[in-house]
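Example 3.
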Amino acid sequence: MGKKLRYGMVGGGPGAFIGNVHRKAIASEGTAELVAGCFSTNFEKNLETGDFYNIDKERIYRDYREMAEREKQREDKIDFVSIVTPNSTHFEISKAFLEADIHVMCEKPLCFTSEEAEELYSIAKERNLFFGVMYTYSGYPMVKLAKKFVEDGEIGEIVNVSAEYLQDWLIDQVGGEKQSETKLSVWRTDPKKSGISNCVGDIGSHIENTVAYITGLRPKKLLSVLDYYKMDLDLNANILVEYENGVHGVYSCSQVCVGHLNGLVVRVFGTEGSVEWAQEDPNYLKVTKKNQPEQIYHRGTDYITGRAAELNHIPAGHPEGIVFAVANHYNTFISAIVEKNEGMSIENINLDFPKVEDGVSGVKFIEAAVASSKEGNIWKEV
Amino acid sequence: MGKKLRYGMVGGGPGAFIGNVHRKAIASEGTAELVAGCFSTNFEKNLETGDFYNIDKERIYRDYREMAEREKQREDKIDFVSIVTPNSTHFEISKAFLEADIHVMCEKPLCFTSEEAEELYSIAKERNLFFGVMYTYSGYPMVKLAKKFVEDGEIGEIVNVSAEYLQDWLIDQVGGEKQSETKLSVWRTDPKKSGISNCVGDIGSHIENTVAYITGLRPKKLLSVLDYYKMDLDLNANILVEYENGVHGVYSCSQVCVGHLNGLVVRVFGTEGSVEWAQEDPNYLKVTKKNQPEQIYHRGTDYITGRAAELNHIPAGHPEGIVFAVANHYNTFISAIVEKNEGMSIENINLDFPKVEDGVSGVKFIEAAVASSKEGNIWKEV
Amino acid sequence: MGKKLRYGMVGGGPGAFIGNVHRKAIASEGTAELVAGCFSTNFEKNLETGDFYNIDKERIYRDYREMAEREKQREDKIDFVSIVTPNSTHFEISKAFLEADIHVMCEKPLCFTSEEAEELYSIAKERNLFFGVMYTYSGYPMVKLAKKFVEDGEIGEIVNVSAEYLQDWLIDQVGGEKQSETKLSVWRTDPKKSGISNCVGDIGSHIENTVAYITGLRPKKLLSVLDYYKMDLDLNANILVEYENGVHGVYSCSQVCVGHLNGLVVRVFGTEGSVEWAQEDPNYLKVTKKNQPEQIYHRGTDYITGRAAELNHIPAGHPEGIVFAVANHYNTFISAIVEKNEGMSIENINLDFPKVEDGVSGVKFIEAAVASSKEGNIWKEV
Amino acid sequence: MGKKLRYGMVGGGPGAFIGNVHRKAIASEGTAELVAGCFSTNFEKNLETGDFYNIDKERIYRDYREMAEREKQREDKIDFVSIVTPNSTHFEISKAFLEADIHVMCEKPLCFTSEEAEELYSIAKERNLFFGVMYTYSGYPMVKLAKKFVEDGEIGEIVNVSAEYLQDWLIDQVGGEKQSETKLSVWRTDPKKSGISNCVGDIGSHIENTVAYITGLRPKKLLSVLDYYKMDLDLNANILVEYENGVHGVYSCSQVCVGHLNGLVVRVFGTEGSVEWAQEDPNYLKVTKKNQPEQIYHRGTDYITGRAAELNHIPAGHPEGIVFAVANHYNTFISAIVEKNEGMSIENINLDFPKVEDGVSGVKFIEAAVASSKEGNIWKEV
């Protein structure tokens, strides 16, 4: 290769978890170089981060608007921007960069309303830009293997889906008394920054996306019970879903389930078998065929083929972590930009990264889940 | 001791799984002797089973009515009867023995309708008889330990309950084509024998009972989605519940989830910690306190106290299986009879076995779950 | 059946773990009835136990000699005796009953010296008696499945064996200070009762037996390091072995490995695959074929065939515990006696229970392990 | 920071596993920049790799000697070199760079003989250079937590150590027929490139190092059984060890244990508790205190303190993989260089990375293990 893309970042100042992961993911692959940024609304911190990454001071911007405009005018403008800010700002920032004809990779959720989401989708389509939305978990090889098994008919017709995403880091918020306390990402419990939902918005949407990636199934309607425990936003949710094909599923997400740190678990059951994947142990996939012993597939082994094999970084038995899942999405996204720049026609480009369409679905899912619960736990179309 | 109770059995002919487990459970403890029976409607098989157990031929009966009447008149009549027949017959058989003033241990579900259930409850109360309903799983020591931790406030206030019971033995019934094929217990898919529900009736009711045992919480209302896959009775169900105290939970049960054999898993989450128990690995209990490493408790260890310690049969590390869970219920039930016979007052007798009251709750739960689904997946009071 | 064998027991007074397990195992199957016993050297306790089991007082004996002699003369004499006393007495008691022409099932280890062991072997052979030695673990169905896979060549040629049996119940004995304290089975640390070895004798011998059962391999020579930690007998041992065919293995046993209760784990590695079984989770068998995902076999499933399937008591997913492993051995032993009594020729009788030959091998293994360590951790022929 | 160190690499051409991991580890942290290299003896491939990393062509060298000499003379010479070549070349390459006054991070094993190892040690000492040896596994936070627990006396006095490192990637070499076939790293089975040992050299040495890191214990003597299966170098080994303090341990390593990919497992048993860590699931540490339930510690949680907490990159529940373990070593190594360059005195510098001293111990361990086996499986001083 030799030629790296140039990218900028909005958000991700010192100590920011997600921004850090995005940067590590790109850096470890060496496929793009960070050359511009607006990392913090605090300009000191902004400069500090720029300094750490050896970024030319003139490309450290005071706000994202300035960044989009000024980058647009450079000959060596950034090829894409990574947006890793709180949810409330995703829409306007994404829009600004799209309108500057810069490809976008944005953290999820895409934005606050389905109208905004559709608007972003339209702009990207019109301007022929790639717009990635970082639903990390479909970047794991074993999730791709699960998708392959389902697609190949290895588990037959799907009869049931059970997925959950359990955490416990907001347990002290139950009862509402500690609402004001600061903690990493406590902005998530603030409607101004998080939007209409905290728990479903932050992690329920990951369930929706990961299930959709593996199975191709999107909820047609749903019924949810969101638990607020006296907080302004939800901390826990149990959701029944019905897909287009009439099959049912159940999704549970929580930030108050003590003993679970980041427990995304997806189980898909079919007439001929099942697949099960757990994010905290991501290098394994459990596959059981009807009337056969359960099988544990290990990432990186010779018996794995397809996309899951292509995305292997490290030999089997040497654990890959979450950064590689993010890196896999970036690698595909960056390759797509490179190939497009080289004139390859879109249908020949590998687009296996989460896109603005996924972001739109995610926002609609969140809207439906909140509406169902607010309106008395009734069925809502998604 | 030296003096054993005498018991009879209805159902449990050659090859019957449940009857066999009941007999082994009682025999291994040596606290009661099988002296009468009506094991099969096929009289040859009935005699054969009686012969195997050295039962006096005159106490092998052609039907349960004859058995109840003739036993009633004997001086050495049976102290209790074990009823291990298909669901459809539980009501009438139980009633017959209660009316013969014989204590009853009946398999679950108790009967078909809440009216029947209430009637049985009333007869037992009136006649001052013990009426056990074999919800096996609360017989496991580690379930009792979970109950103790919840009762002792070790996990704080309950905020969420997640429980499932997944099997896969009826996967071939999906689509309805193989409905006629014979298989062990295929009567479960026949409404005439199983009642209004197959999956919820058979295993969903175990979820309800085990959660209630551990937490003291019974669903006040529920909303269910039952999947029939073209069969007459349900094979899969996802159910949202709300308890009396407003806390929510989610129950999933299935006979079509490939890769799961008898997967009852109960997780109770509280403000200070959580407990998790899985029936297929019953000698462990996972307990996590807030901000502490998760802990795996092992049955039979010195650090276990209370009822879970009392019911220990075998030293730690030497696995106890399901027969001991059944035996624990029988031991308590039998001791209760012995103590009552010896004149001990009821409030001093240990009644920690599942009772007709549990059976009533179970039937109501099944009724509500079926009604919710049939009426369009709406909320129903239990 | 209808006709039960009659059996007697030596040892197994109130509170005795092993005697209790033997009785439960036999009782749960109903294939033999306890009619005679010498349960304790304390005659009060002896009578008490007899009373509990409804044994005729005249068949409660003051010592084993009296029991053997008097039973021998009865028309309705016991068909077999179960010996569940401390190790030091196994030889003389077994001998007494063999000489009374009574079949024997004895706890392991068989006796103290290989001379004694050979003598017992000869007497049993001469008198045409069955002599079982209760190496429990080969009674588990999944151990039998492991054996089948090895025998059928599923894992190819064996290249390595790794087995361990770790406990922690004697951790407080390290340093020797608490040697005098009483604790269940503390006789095990007393050379007078345990013989030349505690840890290797009690549990190392189980490793030897279980590996031999699965693989057919017996150590030809070994080198051991026994740790005494200032006690009279070993509490920990690491042993390198070489089998007849030149393949090597490593055995570790311990009573001082905190965190392990009864952790017998056997792993057999071959050119085409491997099998792994763990006693604390006995209903599973891990099988991995070369270049394939690992497979978890579950007891009781339809895909299991052979002896492991025959010995199934309870449907898959409903855990069987250790009592059934003991029961499986007794069932085979008892059937063998019945069939022999009915005149079946020995070569047609299923003898798949651990026998005096296994006991002889066990004693030789213990002798070699102790000698190796005592003589400076050198290689010793077994 | 802003100022990055400059580094060069020897080895690590296209497709090389280890070189790739080293580069990703450094790149993801952004603490040093790759500016020079001799990646392959094939100059085309060498240039290709340089091109990929945007390295100035004049700093792509034809051999390591040229590289050491020419770098030495540059004003902007590399601060350190990473050596990721086959074992046979470690000694000469390391020596060349040390003599050019360049800090070294070398893959393990350090070299072929203890004489060479001592020589490297002396040169580094004399010239006051940091010399890291990449024993990766002590870089994992949970290994550091294990070390802390042992050091803090949480598990009391050590009584036994059991460690293994099992792989299966060379199973087809058993019997020797496929010795010539090419496979990733097949040079490992070639004595010219691997030295006197394959299996013990490659992975047995990791056991030695990881145990030493956690416990502070180094084998004083050992007895080994190496299995060659007709190959020139060992593929399997079982080793008994005795530490300076008289405590014993057992180490098993293998490349022919089907079902194990990279299964380093270390268990340390003490009078008060035990710790257990498994490399394939590196984000967990099992800790059991005497008479208490076992505890599973999770990386990244608030209840973890000390070095394991400092080295946290990603929040709990989001798996970190092996690259972070390597990165942790590099981070410490690079910080040490920076601090030394800034004049900090050596005793104030954090030197918690594996050093040439560890390399020396590793070589001595390998020598003793091979000698023990070759001389008839006898005890050898290390």
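Chain B has two domains: 5-134, 138-311+362-381. Chain B touches chain D through twelve residues (CB under 8 Å).
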